[in-house]
Amino acid sequence: MLNRQIRATTAGDSARLEVETFTSNRGLALEEGLIFEIGRAEVTGVDLDEPAPFEPRLGGLERKDPIGLPGLSEPETLRHYVRLSQKNYSIDSGLYPLGSCTMKHNPRLNEAVARLPGFADIHPLQPQSTVPGALELIEDLAHWLMTLTGMDAVAMTPKAGAHGEVCGMMAIKAAIEAKGEGETRRIVLAPDSAHGTNPATAARLGFEVRSIPARADGTVDAAEVERLLGPDVAAIMLTNPNTCGLFEKEIVEIAAATRNAGAYFYCDGANFNAIMGKTRPGDLGVDAMHLNLHKTFSTPHGGGGPGAGPVVLSGRLAPFAPAPFLRRDENGLRLVERLDEAPYSLGRLAAFHGQMGMFVRAYAYMLSHGADGLRQAAEDAVLSANYIRASLNDLMSQPFGDRPCMHEVLFDDAWLKPTGLTTLDFAKAMIDEGYHPMTIYFPLVAHGAMLIEPTESESKASLDLFIATMRDLAMAARRGETERFLGAPVYAPRRRLDETRAARNPVLKWTRPPPQPV
Ligand SMILES: *Cc1c(COP(=O)(O)O)cnc(C)c1O
Fold it and tell me: Ranges for the Glycine dehydrogenase C-terminal domain (predicted)?
């Protein structure tokens, strides 16, 4: 910092100045240390009286040393968290084209409704008789989820898509065991293009995962599935539209073959945004499918925070749904908590019945859109992705040929080969342009994959600027202006991090650095 440095790099025709500032701030983007680094244990933002003398009743277990928490004044605390929040790129900051994640706008109407005291201030341990409205909302949401998917039941407990997969696959396992086939049906089929959570879920539940190779056109071949099916197969896990952004055309044949072989069909519903209001998975022969409310139904993605991934189930699997679940009888709605009322239930997956805040937001989204609005959201999501595809495919290569996609468009790195640049270099240069990169290197079936999902919530102007930026970058890459990519990101607060080391050797605990010799 004291050694100020000015370095000029020439990238094509635009000379760039990179200045290292005294403060490490860049313009108005301020550096921020960890709270442990900036806080001081002897400082606090509150002024409490010393406690009156008292007799400890902890039997000598009370803490003797100072707890050492970092203290900050109120303005310091406020600035710390505001600066941190400004480092967080979000859908409220700009276009967020992360494929397979459906980073759509979170309507503020949802937030207003979720903050109504009747929803926000209730507690899961309150007697059920005091929250009939909340139970009714959950029942209504469940009704519309079943209606949209054409399925017979829905488990509302799961906290995320991956948790929904576990729930659905546990229901399948319970169904197989109820038929006395638990020992023989040990295999789960999943295509090469599957999201990592699919094989991870199957393996976690003790199944052996066998992969279905992708066809040259990026979809699954029903004949190939039929060849792999047998009395040892428990289930197939398939995403539709798949992670290449393509609709699995033979899904009905695949479902029928799976059922005929005595196995179950788990559909990964993360991409439901592409088909909502157009196609019902129940009509396609699906047995279980999770819905990521934070993808299709516009609830915030959170940082691994409160999420919801309800799982819709076919009649074949409904008896195995987890407890608790809602039942309406002569006394009205109630949660069935006791397993003697649900003898086939797979049991309890979590302490409470789902995430109320997410349910309210998703329900508000459905009601404010209506059936026509939900269908239009799916249509516009597909239209936006195809607009990007058609606007970039003269410069960038598509792994499975030039044909329409669903809600996300997949490019590979074949077009980058002659430039010597990688998908990672291209993605890093997008950060300098103010764009969060698309999903890269997933799905694994495309070499150097770039998966772009704009969603329906971007305006045409926003898509046009994104396309123009991508074209500018692509042409620079083709012209051999490698400096613009290899050094990127130049304008981000941090440059290239060692992501592999961070993942392999995560340092999650701050330790006080040793005192520096004077
Ligand atoms: C997002 C996603 C998942 C996992 O969902 P989470 O809610 O993140 O746990 C599973 N499969 C696919 C295809 C996804 O895109």
Answer: 377-474
